Amino acid sequence: METSLALTIIGIVLTLVGIIFNAIPKVVNQKIMGDLAPEAENPAAALRVAIGGISIAVGIIALYCKGFPVGQASALLVAMGTGFIVIIAAIISMKFRGFSDEVAVPPVVMFIILTIIAFYASS
Question: Tens digits of per-residue pLDDT, 57-74?
Answer without folding.
Answer: 999 999 999 999 999 999
